[in-house]
Amino acid sequence: MELNERQEQILEIVKESGPITGEQIAEKLSLTRATLRPDLAILTMSGFLDARPRVGYYYTGKTGGQLFNERMKKLTVKEFQSIPVVVNESASVYDAICTMFLEDVGTLFVVNKQAHLVGILSRKDLLRASMGKQDLESVPISIIMTRMPNVTTCKPSDSMLEVANKLINKQIDGLPVVREVEDNGTVNHEVIGRLTKTNVTKAFVYIANDDIHT
Ligand code: ADP
């Protein structure tokens, strides 16, 4: 986030003279305490400054990177997830290609009759399957998909930072957001959302544009 000129001045004063009260900062800037209130609120909410009752404001010393990291950790999957697009495991490669185009997504989640997650299909999985001479309508997706338990998933309560790390480490574009359901002692996964690199980019832009007023 970008600080305005007055916020930069306040930051300098607190760095030099903190802990310092709001009243004293206002005096140094020849302004009233009330005028400074919104700027002080922004500086404390964004983590640059901290305040203790009867002591005053002090500089936290946190770098922009540390503050970004803290805010990214607080954002959760459920705030940014998109609607999932699923296909049944009995669908053909041809059907899956059509769905991918019609739904305008890069990753399809494959489910069984019970609507439990059984696999995942990416654009390249479908391209690879299309390179041979097979009839795409007769090739079932279940033989080309990446299947459970090898599918990396996430939960609505996971942090966006955690998910971003998974996407990078596994070199994948998206993850199904799942809820665990237990059937006769076996744990299955219901797909309730989709979290892709686009959602991570949106979270990044959200933090960058967030002026704390909202
Ligand atoms: P693309 O193949 O279009 O570059 P990805 O990088 O997402 O897209 O997929 C690469 C491979 O990883 C594919 O074979 C795909 O099936 C698999 N894959 C994609 N997402 C996941 C996931 N969440 N968990 C496990 N494997 C995945």
Task: Report a brief summary of the structure.
Helices cover 43% and strands 21% of the residues.
Spell out the blueprint of helices and strands.
Layout: H1 5-17, H2 22-28, H3 33-45, E1 49-52, E2 56-59, H4 64-74, H5 77-80, E3 86-88, H6 93-103, E4 107-111, E5 117-122, H7 123-130, E6 146-147, H8 160-170, E7 174-183, E8 186-196, H9 197-209
Parallel strand pairs: 3-4
Antiparallel strand pairs: 1-2, 4-5, 5-6, 7-8
Helix pairs in contact: 1-3, 2-3, 6-7
Bound molecules: adenosine-5'-diphosphate (ADP).
Pfam families: CBS, HTH_11
Protein name: CBS domain-containing protein
InterPro entries: CBS_dom, CBS_dom_sf, CBS_domain-containing, DeoR_HTH, HTH_11, UCP026546_HTH-CBS, WH-like_DNA-bd_sf, WH_DNA-bd_sf
Backbone CA Rg: 25 Å
**What about the largest sheet?**
4 strands, mixed
Structural class by sheet pairing and helices: alpha+beta
Shape assignment = elongated
- How would you classify the quaternary structure? single chain
Question: If you average the pLDDT, what whole number results?
Answer: 92
What share of residues are in beta strands? 15-25%
Run of helices and strands:
HHHEEHHEHEEHEHEEH
CATH class of the largest domain: Alpha Beta
Strands of the widest sheet, in order across it, are 3-4-5-6
CATH fold title of the largest domain: CBS-domain
Number of strands: 8
Low-confidence stretches: none
Number of domains: 2
The small molecules bound here are: adenosine-5'-diphosphate
Number of separate helices: 9
Query: What is the distance, rounded to the nearest whole angstrom, between the alpha carbons of the first and last residues?
Result: 13 Å
Spell out the CATH superfamily of the largest domain: CBS-domain
